[in-house]
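Both lines are quoted verbatim for reference:

——
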Amino acid sequence: MRVSPALAISVAVLTACAASAPGTSAGAATSGSPYGAESAGARAAMAAVTDIREVVNQLPEEVWLSKGEDQSVIWVEPSSRATDSMWIPWVGNEGEMGKSIAVHRHYRVLYWIFQDYWSTTNQVRYSTTNSYRTSAPVPGNSTGGGRKRLSIRSDGTPFMENAS
């Protein structure tokens, strides 16, 4: 499912309005925050979409990406690249990890990739254990949203950079 830019902006505006409603505190910790320090105002600022436009597979085996949110798949032949479009899902807690993009090799998952809902820099993160709390930033240029190239390096680790 693709979300139009107009819908994403509408959601951000509605969230911002709810955060500034009487009886709410813009500086109060939000209940969904795993860290307990994010404000409702910071949550409303999350609107940047990160779109994987190219996947570079540096492994000698086929890899594929499958997104739990909508079951879309990108297949990449050994030592090659694929161009497509896959939006990275926002994940804000352990219970939402099923929406993540799983990167597969040899019919097992190498790691799960997602965009951190609570990050003000729209950080893309990954986890080798399917855990939000123990995830780490994807190395490279994995902030700011926009079009990205995801490389599966020869050692199997992810790397991200801006794509045109």
